[in-house]
Design a protein that fits this description.
Elements: E1 2-11, E2 14-24, E3 29-33, H1 40-48, E4 55-60, E5 63-64, H2 70-76, E6 78-80, H3 93-107, H4 112-121, H5 137-149, E7 155-159, H6 167-183, E8 187-191, H7 195-201, E9 204-209, E10 212-217, H8 219-223, H9 226-240
Helix pairs in contact: 3-5
Length: about 240
């Protein structure tokens, strides 16, 4: 579904992403974790086209996207949410979803059935006619995900989707995302600092530190990796585990 080969990004003399190679299979849920400043959001911005990488190649379904703009990549099936919410507050919930839906329909990929059910699964069915500005924070997070699903994505990237949610909201979100995976071959790449959430959701986890990949593996393998413990998880997590 997604393949990165030797992807790097520099800002002046700062190496934000360093020689990252990664593949994500159709239907896979991949976690992306690491300390603040590790390059996680920068990597998502490179994949989505908001930033252009300095070296390396990015392809989706074997098709190179290096020269494509963000909206062209979205048309190919790369969808994402943002760490900072970006919804149209003056539009209704339904209109926010419809905006993305136009592009999704033009792509001719399947997805109408899952979108209708997703609106209910993400608890937005009774809020479709309300202005987005009236929604609570957790509801806005869910709206961003449903709007991304309206693109009928091949790859859905979520940048801290559980940020600011309480434990029950986080559990509900995990269940809803697990349902998305069960209903389609859409690959999901998730950034989050809630380790309980991301360990339970992900099949495999990639760990970044200082822009470079320091570990790849199952949640168990990553949580027991000494380099990951030292760089990110910490001794307290190791003892608790």
């Amino acid at each position: 579904m997604l393949e990165l080969k030797g992807v790097s990004k520099t800002f002046g003399g700062v190496k934000a992403v360093q020689n990252v190679s990664m593949t994500i299979a159709p239907g896979e849920v991949r976690g992306l974790i690491g300390p603040n400043g590790a390059g996680k959001s920068t990597l998502v911005n490179l994949i989505s086209g908001l930033l252009r990488h300095s070296t390396g190649t990015i392809s989706i379904h074997g098709e190179g996207v290096d020269k494509l703009s963000a909206h062209q990549r979205a048309h190919l099936g790369i969808a994402r949410t943002f760490q900072n919410l970006r919804v149209f507050g003056s539009l209704t919930v339904q209109q926010n979803i419809d905006v993305a839906g136009y592009s999704g329909q033009a792509s001719h990929r399947n997805g109408n059935d899952i979108l209708r059910e997703a609106i209910a699964r993400f608890d937005l069915a009774d809020k479709l006619h309300a202005p987005a500005s009236s929604l609570a924070y957790g509801q806005l997070r869910r709206l961003e995900i449903v709007r991304a699903l309206a693109l009928r994505p091949r790859l859905l990237m979520l940048d801290e989707p559980a940020a600011g949610m309480n434990e029950q909201e986080t559990d509900d979100l995990r269940e809803a995302l697990s349902w998305v995976r069960s209903q389609s071959d859409c690959a999901i790449l998730v950034i989050d600092h809630d380790l309980k959430f991301i360990m339970a959701l992900s099949e495999r986890i990639t760990v970044l530190n200082l822009g470079a990949v320091i570990a790849n593996g199952s949640p168990k393998e990553v949580s027991e990796n000494r380099q990951v413990i030292d760089a990110y998880l910490g001794e307290d997590y190791e003892h608790a585990a």
